[in-house]
Amino acid sequence: MASETTRDSVRSVERALTILQCFTLDESALTLMEIARKMDLPMSTTVRIVSTLQKMGFLDRNGDKTYSLGSRAYSVGCVARAHFRIQKVAYPFMVQIRDATKEAVSLYGFEGESRVCYEHVPSLLSMRCVVRPGDHFPLFAGAAGKCLLAYSSPEIVEREIAQAYPITGATIVDRDAFLKNLAGIRENGYAISYGEREEGITSIAVPIFYPRGKATVCLSVAGPSVRFTDDVIRELLPWISRLAADITKLVS
């Protein structure tokens, strides 16, 4: 009986935390029905967990009967950000790269079945690649996603190949071509995307081996293809790779 009670308690905690993760930058307010649908839970269970999260301040109930992340979630996020080591170490390097190139620089990592932007330093130019910290993108498309996948387990790679679809005409969806692309990234130590996720945008990404030597984070620079050319990339990559290696040493 005790073990069954423990399992139920753990499941409740997992569900509560997963409900908090239902909220995104683009879906910051959700109804109970939307939460239940995202969670695939009965409405009664959803109401019970949401009510508890609201009572604890992790969710707020809005005037239109939707729910949003509450003040307690905000304060926890502030504490996490203040002590998020990889972001604190990488940020000065990111500003250095942005100031030298004038292009957008992002720090990405794994989160579930997607890559999430941990930090972003915007371009200094009017025509730019726009990304927000907290944004999620597919792993199978784009330099950052491919850079993370190149050092992932075969199971994760096969999962991404199975669900890949052509976001643009440049998205690689053929299995053999996909695997060859990942092998090239491991061999060269960097990834390049020519409009795989967004037409007209070229991006590069280099791995940061964190934590414990695993490449679960990467540094990416992106800009309009008309400006971020192969000549610019060839000149930039050795320097970016050295900075990523410096970051790896500092967080190891």
Can you give a write-up of this model?
The protein has 252 residues and is of the alpha+beta class. The protein has 2 domains: 2-76, Winged helix-like DNA-binding domain superfamily/Winged helix DNA-binding domain (Arc Repressor Mutant, subunit A, Orthogonal Bundle), CATH 1.10.10.10; 84-251, Beta-Lactamase (2-Layer Sandwich). 49% of the residues lie in helices and 18% in strands. The protein has 9 helices and 8 strands. The strands form 2 sheets. The protein has a 6-stranded antiparallel sheet, sandwiched between helices. A hairpin with a 6-residue loop joins strand 6 (191-194) and strand 7 (201-208). It is globular, with a radius of gyration of 20 Å. 29% of the residues are buried.
The strand line-up of the biggest sheet is 5-4-3-8-7-6
User: How many helix segments?
Assistant: 9
Number of strands: 8
General shape = globular
Q: What is the CATH superfamily classification of the largest domain?
A: GAF domain
CATH 2nd-level architecture of the largest domain: 2-Layer Sandwich
Strand count, sense and barrel status of the largest sheet are:
6 strands, antiparallel
What is the CATH topology of the largest domain?
Answer: Beta-Lactamase
SSE topology string? HHHEEHHEEEHHHEEEH
Question: What is the CATH class of the largest domain?
Answer: Alpha Beta
Task: Kindly estimate the percentage of residues that lie in beta strands according to DSSP.
Answer: 15-25%
